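agent> fetching stored inputs for the zinc ion docking request
agent> found them:
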Amino acid sequence: MCYYNKLDRHAKKLSRLGHLNAICGWDQAAMMPNGGAQARSEAMAELAVISHELATADYLEDWFKQAEAEDLTPEQRVSLDALKRQWMMQNILPADLVEQQSLAGSQCEHAWRTQRKQNDWEGFKANLKPVVELARKEASIRAQATGLSRYDALLDIYEPGMTSAVLDRIFAEVKSWLPQLIQQVEAKQATEIVLPLSTPFVIEQQQALSLEAMKLLGFDFEHGRLDISTHPFCGGVPTDVRITTRYDESDFTSALMGVIHETGHARYEQGLPQQWRDLPVGEARSMGIHESQSLFCEMQLARSSLFSHLLSPMIQKAFNSTDASLSAENLRLINTRVKPGFIRVDADEVTYPAHVILRYEIERDLIEGKIEVDDIPTIWDQKMTQYLGISTQGNFTDGCMQDIHWTDGSFGYFPSYTLGAMYAAQFMATINQQMDVELLVGQGNLTPIFEWLQTHIWNKGSTLSTDKLVEQATGETLNPEYFKQHLMKRYLNN
Amino acid sequence: MCYYNKLDRHAKKLSRLGHLNAICGWDQAAMMPNGGAQARSEAMAELAVISHELATADYLEDWFKQAEAEDLTPEQRVSLDALKRQWMMQNILPADLVEQQSLAGSQCEHAWRTQRKQNDWEGFKANLKPVVELARKEASIRAQATGLSRYDALLDIYEPGMTSAVLDRIFAEVKSWLPQLIQQVEAKQATEIVLPLSTPFVIEQQQALSLEAMKLLGFDFEHGRLDISTHPFCGGVPTDVRITTRYDESDFTSALMGVIHETGHARYEQGLPQQWRDLPVGEARSMGIHESQSLFCEMQLARSSLFSHLLSPMIQKAFNSTDASLSAENLRLINTRVKPGFIRVDADEVTYPAHVILRYEIERDLIEGKIEVDDIPTIWDQKMTQYLGISTQGNFTDGCMQDIHWTDGSFGYFPSYTLGAMYAAQFMATINQQMDVELLVGQGNLTPIFEWLQTHIWNKGSTLSTDKLVEQATGETLNPEYFKQHLMKRYLNN
Ligand SMILES: [Zn+2]
Ligand SMILES: [Zn+2]
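agent> prediction call returned; pasting tokens
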């Protein structure tokens, strides 16, 4: 077991450097004064070089060969597989391609921050083209190494085991009912009267409310904290999870729902198996499963009618107000309002999948070489019109230039969002069969629900494939029917 | 210049890893929840290993040989000297000694935390003996390499260029007038009426006051911040200085004076020469010079009569109170109260040197082998009685077990505190000759005073020896007469 142990030790070393990177990255976003930026990025770049050297060290190939011949327990073999996958992912690309991608990505992303505001598609296009070219090269190399198609080889980075064949089938199904559902919900909600919030909401009170909500959802404050950053995220390490939010005095719901979302991510991290700490097999299974945990908290729980009854008194107490707009029923109306819009990150639960499917279809064809960068705005406009009934013609800012993902070449990530929503619905359907969720939520006793997630999801880390994980937890692999049923029930039957 | 550049690059790499260590160390003390401790220390230990490997790499000896033969500018030669000193300091000790010291130090310090509370000298002694033995070994090795005496070789770590011959002379002089001065001040202050503070002081208000004081003292908030930790310190990096304090609701002065003290350290760091960033030659000159900057702010400025007139309205505003205890005159009385006591960290400006001289004399003789660990309590008691007129017989908790320094083998550090006080007095005497300090402080215009420090101290980094630095700034090397004059004037003439 000598070489297995060496690899184990090596991975832990890398993970510990990742720990320092995570904390300094969190600090950069949440604590660091502006003047510290330059030296900080130099310091973090130095760490990245050291980590990269370690991750791509020559001797590792031999170590893996030796370790695979060793007498290992089944558990060790699973860990070794995860180690090998991580190593291959980090060694598959030639150094000069990685460097070109980093440069092209930085340049595209940096310019995008200005170009987006100026609706400058021509300028952006010029930077995006090399990024796409390099991503296609990356996809080819990964495809060759894995036997997957080019797009699937990128998808595999974020969703190991997922393929566009499966996504095509699932998303086709969603497309068969989603546009109609959106119209029905809009018609139904047209007669609803939603009371506007009486602003402002003091930041300190919102902060106290956020902490209350985190407590309710079982966030472990011995192993994490909440702070403020411009772009909310869940960072840190499993033993010390750092989530952030940003407060808007005119609307407490965005920060509150954001915190609840990040708390879902955080509980997954906090619940990962301790015996595999600092090893790939102990990490979160995939981006989609990660998102399923945040959306479980935000969508399945927090935006439900029953949960509004838990939140309403907390909110009234936090703001010391009994205004009618803060009633459970009005909160439910606010939290389930559906309206097709241009912006993905502002989208509601029902229209969100349309944004994702649109992006998936474009990036898939882009990587497979079926369309070119020049084609994007027209296709974007067509699909927006088809799925959501709104046109983005000439509006690049709120159209194909709205997301950061493509600017640095992160193709293959978008499907995770909707996969997460679907997994979350499927998990909740199973939990509903095993316990009286309505009763528990009504009592404010979420423990049994989270215990189910702890046992079936968090504790598994990456020891199972996503399909196996979901099958063992719910009795079947991903089935989008649960998501459909969830939306139908919440948005049409209520 | 190839090898000089290599060494320059190598040092910057080490410094950048030090940056990550500093931020994660700050986070550990100021932000991290308890549950993150284990993984954090593992991660930081990993970084320490990597840094140590880099700092002691085999190839460096050759690089230095090659670099010294290269055609360098005078400035580069100064930087190279500083690089070489740093390299030698990090490579002089055999790895097994460093490891033994680390183990013995950790064990002694860990047990001390309990033993001190229990007044358990016998238990502590058993752990301190190996620490002293190892420190003597370290001192011998350093003495052989530097040609210094054994104690001086340890002193040289913190105060390059300082020797016990100089300290003996200076401290003998201080001892010739200090005990009598203390008695005179006590007699004078016996008739003073100091109004007690009317507590409590709300933490948030103390925090706001701290930030106000930092602003007054020119702390650059673009390159630093203030937070809370159990043990206040000045950490971070020059471009992002992190100072901490802790608040006591029953007494705002401890946090306020603490913050002012740390602001002095911080301004030095923030003012270090940018062209030498990440290089040893760009670092603070010595511990004594560092302390001179904190004591300049705290002792020379903040505890002065005139400064009380600046602070008083700020304090009254912060706590929204015009209580007579917050008058400028009463604050001055509080801030200059002298009373011999057992505890160094609680000591006032006048009695503090006695605590330092006592420790210096003991650790000097301990390292030189003139006394043994068993002798410490008796000598401690004798010297406390002689210098401060109070006995610590049988009281180890408040006697020779009060400090953390010796537990992990940091012999040679204590003199820096009083050297700092002396340098601060000498700097202020010079500044007084060059500008009307009373007028400036009276106007609350501290800029010209800090500009002097920026030009003569901060901006020099480690480009000059301490003697040269002080001589160029003040016209002479360390002269304790200024400190004496300062104490006489403040504590007897007022
Ligand atoms: Zn998320
Ligand atoms: Zn200090």
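agent> quick read of the result: The two ends of chain B are 59 Å apart (CA to CA).
agent> awaiting further instructions
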